[in-house]
Amino acid sequence: MPWIVEKQFRVVLGGNTFIDTPNLLEYKGESLFTLERQEETGFLAVSCRIYDEQGRHLGSVVRNAFHPNEHYEGPKSFAISGKVHDWAVEERPSGRLVCAIKQKEAARPAELHLSVNLYTPDGFLISATPDAINLRGVIMRGNVVVGCRAGIVVMPDGSIRLGASKDAVPAGSV
């Protein structure tokens, strides 16, 4: 069954709602989450890569399924818990949440509900609990972003923008 990049959806990431915003979080010009919809079933799925604080690739979420990196040689291991449409990946033995995905009925009124604690390849922590997103002490909760090119943008200089449009004006230039 073919998958298409989705443009119409409602996703909750860290207590913030993103409606028809294809890039939930963009970091230094790269979208960290990919949303796709299966054409025949209408099933919405997310994909992302997961790194440790040293930038080593731990694994990936591919269309709502966790795939550990078989070649990872770091100190971490994982436990997966939950059900088909409501599951979580945690580090062992710390119990630290890496990724949790709720979909379908478990995510209502959204199509997907995501919580993550993951790093980018250069060690930037993305922390999105069920209630809020924390990016270097900037806490975002309860925001609704509609129809933007990117919901949250972390710029190369570390500044953060919420709701970036295609014609976003650089900070400090107005």
Please outline what is shown here.
0% of the residues lie in helices and 53% in strands. The protein has 174 residues and is mainly beta.
What do you see in this structure?
- The protein is mainly beta.
- It has one domain.
- It has no helices and 19 strands.
- Strands 2, 3, 10, 11, 12, 13, 14, 15, 16 and 17 form a ten-stranded mixed β-sheet that branches.
- The N and C termini lie far apart (47 Å).
- The C terminus is likely disordered.
Topology, element by element:
Blueprint (H helix, E strand, L loop, with lengths): L2 E3 L4 E4 L2 E4 L3 E5 L2 E2 L2 E5 L5 E8 L5 E6 L2 E4 L8 E7 L2 E7 L4 E7 L8 E8 L5 E4 L4 E3 L2 E3 L3 E3 L3 E5 L5 E5 L10
Parallel strand pairs: 2-13, 3-17, 4-18
Antiparallel strand pairs: 1-6, 2-3, 4-5, 6-7, 7-8, 8-9, 10-11, 11-12, 12-13, 13-14, 14-15, 15-16, 18-19
Radius of gyration: 16 Å
Give the helix tally.
0
User: Per DSSP, what share of the residues sits in E-state strands of 2 or more residues?
Assistant: over 45%
- Written as H for each helix and E for each strand, in order along the chain, the element string is EEEEEEEEEEEEEEEEEEE
Low-confidence stretches: 168-174
- The helicity comes to under 10%
